[in-house]
Amino acid sequence: MGTSVQVTPLSGVFNENPLSYLVSIDGFNFLIDCGWNDHFDPSLLQPLSKVASTIDAVLLSHPDTLHLGALPYAMKQLGLSAPVFSTEPVYRLGLLTMYDQYLSRRQVSEFDLFTLDDIDSAFQSVTRLTYSQNYHLSGKGEGIVVAPHVAGHLLGGTVWKITKDGEDVIYAVDYNRRKEKHLNGTVLESFVRPAVLITDAYNALHNQPPRQQREMFQDAISKTLRAGGNVLLPVDSAGRVLELLLILEDYWAEHSLNYPIYFLTYVSSSTIDYVKSFLEWMGDSITKSFETSRDNAFLLKHVTLLINKSELDNAPDGPKLVLASMASLEAGFSHDIFVEWASDVKNLVLFTERGQFGTLARMLQADPPPKAVKVTMSRRVPLVGEELIAYEEEQTRLKKEEALKASLVKEEESKASLGPDNNLSGDPMVIDANNANASADVVEPHGGRYRDILIDGFVPPSTSVAPMFPFYENNSEWDDFGEVINPDDYIIKDEDMDQAAMHIGGDDGKLDEGSASLILDAKPSKVVSNELTVQVKCLLIFIDYEGRADGRSIKTILSHVAPLKLVLVHGSAEATEHLKQHCLKHVCPHVYTPQIEETIDVTSDLCAYKVQLSEKLMSNVLFKKLGDYEIAWVDAEVGKTENGMLSLLPISTPAPPHKSVLVGDLKMADLKPFLSSKGIQVEFAGGALRCGEYVTIRKVGPAGQKGGGSGTQQIVIEGPLCEDYYKIRAYLYSQFYLL
């Protein structure tokens, strides 16, 4: 039968939880997306933990936490060890997003789910692909091809196409149909009749506001600033914030505004540095502008990049606009700024995306919003006084224990290297360092004392034998000048240097002065927390700049793509059911909405079979060249090989004669200049080509309908049997391959 396809949601169905899905194609297990949310609750990953060790490959679609946030934890704790595939921007910006998440939480808690090293380790296994690049899997995945395609929404965002035996499985979530300032729209509509389409229902019940309402974004900001207030935009680390920065940059330039704009994350400078080099991944307008004038859209003239809140606190007084992570207000600089600014009626907190469920941002976006909210303010402070003394004593004790363990291990290794037959403890010339009866202050025969010899593990003997240094066999290679050195042991690998550079965040080294201090600062510290009740008096506005296709666009695209089978994920129960009913009526009869850990079989019903062409059959087949390919008639009957596989065998009776077939694709628009080049007067008339005085050429579809349609098409030559007729027919035949 056809290619076997099973889909098992691990997270993100009938709700807005992170996205993570297991897709098995002929036994090869893909984990498509590996998301987490800003709560970082390990219980969300229990379904993933059950299958992590069976994953053969990971596909990442977007560089935000909801699509890849669990990758470091899964690789460190859950046994995930499969190769990962993504585009270059998803790799780079995803790495920075996870850095920002870790640093934001480490500053206010004893966050220990993963470390910066775990992030580096997880992303080192990523294979980066370009858009439309076909990657052929090998080994267990032999015959499977994966390819990323443009999704929109976020830079590097991907619609994944997985192909096996001519059947396509498409994974398309969080795509955007509209062209934006820095991104083109999705190419999802270019896929027609895939075997399976996995897509989301997140926006099925939402329609984007008209352009006039979206212009409220700039108006609300400028009005607040002119009134002397501050504006806070809670944003993600390296995703939708890029579109917002370009919108603000253009608006500031157009209206000659002088209010400062600050982009504040732990990785802001690194983010912009990398984005400057990703122009080929952006929209047509940006790439054309760079090609013609060498203007880089992300050479921001009105935006100041900050990586430490102290830099914002030291900024000049006056109205300011701050874009700060995280968008959920659960952690990061945006959380602290909100607490400081919320009580001032002149200020504005402007949300450009729906807050994750259960977060402070989602609570504030409620209608009506709460008048007061309880928040926890935390900060990391250095240890002093008795706490510092106790910490240092504990560290000293731990170091001694580690040193003792290391010495015992070394001693055991030394004894083991001697072997049972080489135990020289009875030899009076060998000193046993573990001899408990040995005295450290032995009297010489002549009344003197041995001086203390400062050699680790050396104890003077209790006999009159003179002390000797212990001997250990050394298996190292030596030459005339000493031990042979292997230069490779001292070479720093390029990828290690690259990761080290990533740790300090970009080429300008700016992160060294700010957030890198958190990475490199080894001073003992603790987290101090206290709960506050914040009176929310500032203005709260939500304007949709999520960059996702709305309900109307989703329905139009799905109708055009017309998959054979459709799997709906990631959306509220109401939105999922609404889209399911619409698709059952207007898209396809097979629509699935699986629950968490529910495996559904979406294997194709095309009844395709794999057959083997026998050598006896192929030896009698006559091939004809057709461009880069060869084609032939094959007359055969189906049989079975010894191992039970279907095989095409030569027919036992003579083959019936074949009609001549012209193979090729002829367009009427291409035929006109071709015939003109042969000296024939040609003109279009009534959808046909009038050739000379007597001959007419038409393209006729099935059932004799003119103009084509679906199915096999025919080229019809009309006219009297004359010299022009045969000449034109010969020219027409020359454009095809005769089989």
UniProtKB/TrEMBL annotation:
Entries under InterPro entries matching the protein: Beta_Casp (IPR022712), CPSF2 (IPR027075), Cpsf2_C (IPR025069), CPSF2_MBL (IPR035639), Metallo-B-lactamas (IPR001279), RibonucZ/Hydroxyglut_hydro (IPR036866), RMMBL (IPR011108)
The UniProt record lists the keyword Secreted: no
Gene3D superfamilies for the chain: Ribonuclease Z/Hydroxyacylglutathione hydrolase-like
One Gene Ontology term of the molecular function aspect: RNA binding
Family: Belongs to the metallo-beta-lactamase superfamily. RNA-metabolizing metallo-beta-lactamase-like family. CPSF2/YSH1 subfamily.
Occurrences of domain Beta-Casp (ranges): 241-364
GO cellular component, one term: mRNA cleavage and polyadenylation specificity factor complex
Keywords per UniProt: mRNA processing, Nucleus, RNA-binding
Protein name: Cleavage and polyadenylation specificity factor subunit 2
SMART domains assigned: Beta-Casp, Lactamase_B
Localization terms from the record: Nucleus
Signal peptide annotation: none
Keyword check for RNA-binding: yes
UniProt-listed GO biological process terms: mRNA 3'-end processing by stem-loop binding and cleavage; regulatory ncRNA-mediated post-transcriptional gene silencing
UniProt organism field: Citrus clementina
Domain of life per record: Eukaryota
Domain Metallo-beta-lactamase, first and last residues per copy: 17-221
